[in-house]
Amino acid sequence: MISDHLYAATRDTQSSAQFKLLVLGDSLSAGYGLEQEESWVSVLQNIWNEESIPIEVVNAAISGETTDGGLARLPRLLEQHHPTHLLIELGGNDGLQGHLVAKTQKNLNSMVKLARDAGATVFIQDMEIPSNYGKRYTQMFADSFDTVAAENNIVLIPFFLADIALDKTLMQRDGIHPNGTAQPQIAHFMYEQLTPLIIH
After folding, report:
1. Nearest residue to 130 (alpha-carbon basis) of 102, 157, 166
2. Averaged over 124-149, what is the pLDDT?
3. What element of type H or E holds 121?
4. Which residue in 79, 80, 91, 77 sits closest to 25, CA to CA?
5. Which residues are catalytic?
6. Contact 163, 182 (CB under 8 A)
7. Is residue 56 scored above 90 in pLDDT?
8. Do 61 and 27 touch, CB atoms closer than 8 A?
9. Which residue of 28, 33, 164, 198 has the fewest C-beta atoms within 10 A of its own C-beta?
10. Which of 12, 5, 116 lies closest to 60, judged by CA?
11. How far apart are CA 45 and CA 53, in angstroms?
12. Residues 48-57: what's their mean pLDDT?
């Protein structure tokens, strides 16, 4: 697990940006196995900078993070960074560890409420897991993200590894984490998803 630290995705990001996106995620957003600047979050910040789009990204993703950990850290992050927008990219480790789906869903709902109470617009990242715990659990897990999005009337961002995970040339040897080649693809996908939601 990488240390619990935060960073603006690039050093030259202007703190006076009109919008601030806090990414609360796990290893998929923390750039597991890669240099920090290689992660899709950093690449996305670079794209926004190059296009003079006034969005600053704060990457608060930690490898191994669960929704329990994200919920525990969120109040401090909101107080410290005052984001205008929050992307919750959590739940995958809950599923891989067989956590109760109801608990994961409750944690996600609690994070949405905390962020909204702090004045942030929330997006939730859809997540998928292998069917290690059987078809029923896998389906319940997948449905929970749709449920949280629908109950809170927030945007559900499609799972950014849906196609990438099927291409071995874009994945690290563990078959779970995208490699450096995949990061720009993820960044461009997230650019298309997030930019019109934040700048409108």
Report:
1. 166
2. 94
3. strand 121-125
4. 91
5. 27, 174, 177
6. no
7. yes
8. yes
9. 33
10. 5
11. 9
12. 97
CA angle 104, 157, 24 (to 5 degrees): 55
Q: Which residues make Cβ contacts (< 8 Å) with residue 70, sequence separation at least 6? A: 24, 88, 90, 107, 111
DSSP for 160-198, written as a single string: TTTTGGG-GGGB-TTSSSB-TTHHHHHHHHHHHHHHHHH
What is the CA 41 to chain-centroid distance, rounded?
A: 9
Q: Are strands 155-157 and 121-125 parallel, antiparallel or unpaired?
A: parallel
Q: How much is the mean pLDDT over the chain?
A: 92
102: Cβ–Cβ under 8 A, 6 or more apart, which residues? none
Spatial CA neighbour of 92 closest among 124, 135, 45? 124
- Could you tell me how many residues make up the chain? 200
Pairing outcome for strands 55-59 and 7-8: antiparallel
Alpha helical stretches, state H, 82-134: 92-96, 101-117
pTM for the model: 0.91
Which amino acid is it at 98? G
51, 85 Cβ separation under 8 angstroms? no
pLDDT band at 13 (very low <50, low <70, confident <90, very high): very low
Going from the C-alpha of 118 to that of each of 8, 76, 112, 171, the distances in angstroms are 20, 11, 10, 36
